Amino acid sequence: NVDKVFLCDGDAIVMRQAHLLQILEALYAAFPHLRQVTVYAGTRSTMTKSQEQLIELRQAGLTRAYLGVESGSDAVLKAINKGVTAAQMLEAGQKLVAAGFDLWAIIIMGLTGQDGDWEEHILSTARMINEMRPRHLSAMTFAPAKGTPLGEDVLAGRFQVCTPDQILEECRLLIEHLDVDPLHFTSNHASNYLPLKGGLPEDREKFLSLIDQALEGKIRLRKTL
Known about the structure:
The chain has 225 residues and is of the alpha/beta class.
């Protein structure tokens, strides 16, 4: 009775085309109720596939792709060593959408820290999402990890993690500038202070009202990662 399968781990689309097609064929043969096969899609890996190959994968039953966009800002992408430019990120997302994938983009708030140009990060990210036009968007919050370069910068005091209110301001600005219609929007990951889930544009005013109430202290924020 399996109806969903996720291909592990962080970038399964990097696999050889023939191997991926073989896996998809075996999955649908093994599970007659299968309706969704999902994959994380690395930007550079996606770019190595031709548009015809991506369409072939979609037609073979690879239905949804998750794309870690993180930011639409070249400065932020460089700072976090993403390894691609904003233009490359956008092209990869557009290729997946054009191939018929149910694209789920993921962005990260708080990547500039308290002293960075957070407005440029958020506005450029909103512009990219508007051009990419995914069906889903998740806005998560940066959480430092010990042993990573940025995590070590946090421990050394070189990077000041954003306050909850700053993250809420980023989320508010993002929601204000998204114009993809329809867009399934979530900001309810364990890293998020105020869980939000719904659709845009229909839930925009509700989301903004909840954020404003949280900024005014009328809604208690939850503990995060």
